[in-house]
Amino acid sequence: MSIDPIYKRILLKLSGEALMGDLGFGLDLKTVQNIALDIKSVTESGTQVCVVIGGGNIFRGIAGVANGLERSSADHMGMLATIINSLALQSVLEYEGIATRVLSAIPMATVCEPYIRRRAIRHMEKGRVVIFSAGTGNPFFTTDTAAALRAAEMNCDALFKGTQVDGVYDDDPITNELAKRYDKISYKDVLTKDLKVMDASSISLARENNIPIVVFSIHSQGAFLDAVLGKGQFTYIGDMGE
Hints:
Distance between the termini: 38 Å
Shape: globular
CATH architecture: 3-Layer(aba) Sandwich
Structural class: alpha/beta
Order of helices and strands: EHEHHEEHEHEEEEHHEHE
CATH superfamily: Acetylglutamate kinase-like
Largest sheet: 9 strands, mixed
Number of domains: 1
Mean pLDDT: 93
Strand content: 15-25%
Radius of gyration: 17 Å
Number of strands: 11
Number of helices: 8
Strand order of the largest sheet: 4-3-5-2-1-6-10-11-9
CATH class: Alpha Beta
């Protein structure tokens, strides 16, 4: 199903919580499979895909710090959680027939490849999905920031953020039914309005590198492909002539 894609290469950012489904912890394999099928449909449309996954379904560094763990150690534990999630998504993608490579910012040669920029680009040029794990490899940086960094390094045309809702709102639409949804919004407005779609450093990094951010619901089957094709419900964050 080769369509003329809007984007040649994109990065998909997933939270660890997106993999939980209705579970309170860990991985719901049916949910992982649905996400894998969505990624497969996008790769079959002709767009190269790389992925960054969080680890909050297994361990959250900030929560560890709140309970007495040293910050660097807690953040490294969170990075290890992202590797578990990445290996799970890789397994399901390959079960669906999509060649996939996991590249880790923390060297772990027995289970995945080390992150090397040129190697990652070559994998994508060969049609493989590349999953970047272990964040940036440094404590004090979120996986949102890692996603913006990898999107810049990979020369991605856009960063797609899969969330629990179908775009960016001025308040939590789950608790406030009057929350306003944005179809388009500038980087500057996301920062000045303190909208919680991604952390400020990741928004700033995307802005500096002119990488638009597309926010959509990861739980709506087919929404990822629709957003990549410019259809369906999503919010576009970019340079609005600011």
